[in-house]
Amino acid sequence: MVLGVAGCSGGTPANPDVSAPSVRVVTSFYPLQFVAERVGGGLVAVENLTPPGAEPHDLELGANDLVSLREADLVVYLRGVATAVDDAVATAAAEQSLDVSEDARLEQFADADHAVLDDGHEDDHGRADLGVDTHFWLDPIRLADVADAVAARLGAIDPPNAAAYATNAAALRADLVALDTEYAQGLRSCTSRDLVTSHAAFGYLATRYNLHQESVSGLSPDEEPTPAALARVADFVKSEGVTTIFTETLVSAAVARAIADETGVSTAVLDPLEGLTSDATGDYLTVMRANLATLRTGLGCS
To answer: Is residue 3 part of a domain?
Structure first.
């Protein structure tokens, strides 16, 4: 049975200062908002640039967003997710920004369409590098490392409360380690280890929990799959005995459902947590546990 253990260190973040928050933090999309809110507790006011139900890759900034960036004490973002944010930070908030790329330890994964890049580099399966995958938060331990970096930066901005930020980050890490344990145990024994998805958003999750990601499209959810990619995934589903193709929130499921209909398998919805849906309840931990339950059913885990 999966251990349904929530991190015992959850609860109220440390907040020795009862006055209104004096530190203003702007984040570029939901996982970073979650981290900033947990680490900052009641000591910071957090504004997220990506509204619920929106795709951060497609984000466009308005005049008010630019004002928020200029006036923020800290802007937490991940370069490569939203071009509009990257450009705005460079021009309006470079000195007060924190790009979490290094702390997230971003990696490259293989192209879903087996295309060869200009440099001709391929992996052992004849696939070319996709480029850097930004979906690091689907590995809870990488997200904990980012939380530590946010705590350190907040402590430098607000030294009297540095210890509170460190305490909050440690509490969040405990919750994320507990989540990681649930995933490791829940996905330890499964009929299938093949994770067939709409787009290649789950590379970090697959790597951490010993799954094999096979995606219809590449890293961008807006990428139109080629006929070759559609045929390849359909053949893979048939040859490997896959029973479930995973679609996603915030992204059209039409292509994945067409492949499922062709191959006679089921579909199930995963949330890549690029942004919360407009009707979402709970937080990152809640959604990740819901994803685990979906994965266990779709992969036939015991």
So the answer is: no
Kindly report the pTM of this predicted structure: 0.86
Q: Is 131 left (phi over 0), alpha (psi -120 to 50) or beta?
A: left
67 vs 108: CA distance, rounded Å: 34
Do residues 36 and 150 make contact, with C-beta atoms less than 8 angstroms apart?
A: yes
pLDDT tens, residue by residue, 148-166: 999 999 999 999 999 999 9
Interacting residues of 282 by C-beta distance below 8 A, sequence separation 6+: none
Residues 88 and 40 in one domain: yes
In this structure, are residues 81 and 201 in contact, taking their beta carbons and an 8 Å threshold? no
* 29 and 176 belong to one structural domain: yes
**253-301 confidence digits (pLDDT tens):** 888 999 999 999 999 999 999 888 777 778 999 999 999 999 999 999 9
Q: Which two tokens stand for residue 108?
A: 């490259």
Both 170 and 230 in a single domain?
A: no
- CATH number of the domain to which 32 belongs: 3.40.50.1980
